[in-house]
């Protein structure tokens, strides 16, 4: 399913190490041109976005230190064009976090567990819209 030749740097943030490792393995298997950077909290993710070259952010909504909503807000202040997909394990969103994020401009949410091929398709579509690929 490889679609491009240039390396795409994807930052994945989730407080569950198993999810980080699984996504890294599956995405690299599907597209050898993806470089995965992993963080297990929002503060590290924000630092990497501020200080490095990141093409794409995939973040969990629910994290203990800086939740996905706060991370989204901060990232959009410093890199408004950075494509972002939020992941959620909530079947029901009791705090309306997803709704709040959509009001802030988030367009792409994927519910765990999900098919990594579907996630990769979303990444390609968003990157093509951003003219980064």
Task: Describe it.
This protein is α/β, with parallel strands linked by helices and 133 residues long. The chain contains five helices and five strands, in the order E-H-E-H-E-H-E-H-E-H. Strands 2-1-3-4-5 form a five-stranded parallel sheet. Helix 3 links the parallel strand 3 and strand 4 (84-88). Helix 2 (42-51) packs parallel to helix 3 (68-78). The longest helix has 15 residues, at 116-130. It is globular and about 35 Å long. The chain starts with 7 loop residues before the first strand and ends with a helix. The mean pLDDT is 89.
> Judging by the overall fold, what is the CATH architecture?
3-Layer(aba) Sandwich
Report strand %.
15-25%
Q: CATH superfamily, please?
A: Response regulator
Q: What would you report as the Rg, rounded to the nearest angstrom?
A: 14 Å
Mean pLDDT: 89
Structurally, how many domains make up the residues? Answer: 1
Q: pLDDT under 50 segments (min length 5)?
A: none
Largest sheet: 5 strands, parallel
At CATH level 3, the topology is Rossmann fold
Share of helix, binned: 40-55%
Structural class: alpha/beta
The H/E string reads: EHEHEHEHEH
> What's the CATH class, please?
Alpha Beta
Distance between the termini: 15 Å
Number of strands: 5
**Side-by-side strand order of the widest sheet:** 2-1-3-4-5
**Shape designation:** globular
Number of helices: 5
Topology diagram in text:
Layout: E1 8-13, H1 17-30, E2 34-39, H2 42-51, E3 56-60, H3 68-78, E4 84-88, H4 97-104, E5 109-111, H5 116-130
Parallel strand pairs: 1-2, 1-3, 3-4, 4-5
């Amino acid at each position: 399913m490889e679609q491009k030749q240039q390396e795409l740097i994807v930052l994945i943030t989730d407080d569950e190490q198993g999810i980080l490792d699984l996504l890294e393995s599956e995405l690299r298997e599907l597209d050898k041109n993806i470089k995965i950077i992993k963080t297990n909290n929002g503060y590290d993710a924000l630092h990497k976005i501020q200080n490095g070259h990141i093409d794409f952010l995939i973040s969990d909504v629910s994290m203990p230190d800086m939740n996905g909503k706060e991370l989204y807000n901060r990232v959009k202040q410093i890199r408004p064009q950075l494509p972002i997909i939020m992941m959620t394990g909530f079947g029901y969103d009791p705090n309306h976090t997803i709704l709040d994020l959509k009001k802030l401009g988030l367009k792409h949410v994927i519910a765990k567990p999900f098919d990594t091929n579907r996630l990769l398709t979303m990444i390609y579509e968003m990157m093509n819209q951003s003219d980064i690929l």
